[in-house]
Automatic annotation (TrEMBL):
This is Inositol monophosphatase. InterPro entries: Inositol_monophosphatase-like. It comes from the Bacteria. Its EC number is 3.1.3.25. Belongs to the inositol monophosphatase superfamily.
């Protein structure tokens, strides 16, 4: 599958837990304005915890896999050329140190750490860790998805009016936003958590059936898409092509299976 040995999954999990415990949780519900700043606007924030966690994770992950490189969300926000590493031949760690930074900054316990390992534009392993309740989701390509040591599967397929999930209109064109708002009325309850990681965990736990996202930054989706696929789910861009972590634009739809995906796609975009 790869030209390199994937580091021990539990060892990576322990590292993520340790960094979350020492670099993220001490700031939770203790930040003041001086510990939060805007990057590109009022909904694009970075905190001291984001920066501290990425500084700790990047060298530690690299040490687990000699020759690997790192793409961190905060490093990429400072230099977009960091993203080019995903297209190289070296294995690449992709880090979102605090996914759901808005929630974190407001003291809401809806955030998580996301780590993916990719090579030549393909995700081969992924981790999502909720530092508040301790949940850890892991997957290696071809080996299933696991949550706290238990193999997990996506929710069974249900009719469209019973499908619950996260449908974001953020980052999509105004016309598409209007269409989605209108057509999603035929679906079940929408629950957008302002954290892709938390929404992926809901899919893995079978508490949601679908998610729709736009602007596909790799630190938000590389791990989650792999975890969802390894749990039996089906996903694709809305033009039907497969997701790859090097894609930055487009919209991705995730569903319990191919038939459900096609039904959702027809409802929302047909």
């Amino acid at each position: 599958m790869t030209g390199f040995p994937i580091p021990d999954i539990d060892r990576v999990s322990d590292l993520i837990r340790s960094v979350a415990r020492t670099e993220i949780m001490p700031y939770f519900q203790k930040l003041d304005a001086s510990g939060i700043r805007q990057k590109t606007g009022p909904t694009d924030l970075v905190t001291l915890a984001d920066e501290a966690a990425e500084r700790a994770l990047a060298p530690a992950l690299s040490a687990l896999l000699p020759g690997s490189r790192v793409i961190g969300e905060e490093a990429a926000s400072e230099d977009e050329r960091v993203l080019d590493r995903i297209h190289g031949d070296d294995p690449v760690w992709i880090i979102d140190p605090v996914d759901g930074t808005i929630n974190f900054a407001q003291g809401r316990p809806m955030f998580a750490v996301i780590v993916a390992l990719a090579c030549k534009g393909e995700t081969v392993a992924g981790w999502i860790h909720d530092p508040v309740d301790g949940r850890m989701a892991t997957a290696v390509k071809g080996q299933g998805a696991w949550l706290d040591g238990r193999r997990v599967h996506v929710a069974p397929a249900v009719p469209l009016p019973q499908m619950v999930g996260a449908l974001s209109t953020r980052f999509c064109a105004e016309e598409m936003s209007r269409q989605l708002e209108e057509r999603s009325a035929g679906l079940g309850e929408r629950a957008c958590l302002s954290s892709a990681a938390q929404e992926y965990l809901r899919l893995l736990e079978g508490r949601a059936h679908y998610s729709l996202y736009h602007r596909l930054m790799p630190w938000d989706h590389a791990a989650g898409v792999l975890l969802h696929a390894e749990a039996g789910g089906h996903s694709a861009l809305i033009d039907g092509t497969p997701y790859r972590p090097g894609l930055l634009q487009g919209s991705i739809l995730l569903a319990p299976d191919r038939d459900s995906w096609q039904a959702l796609h027809g409802q929302l975009f047909g």
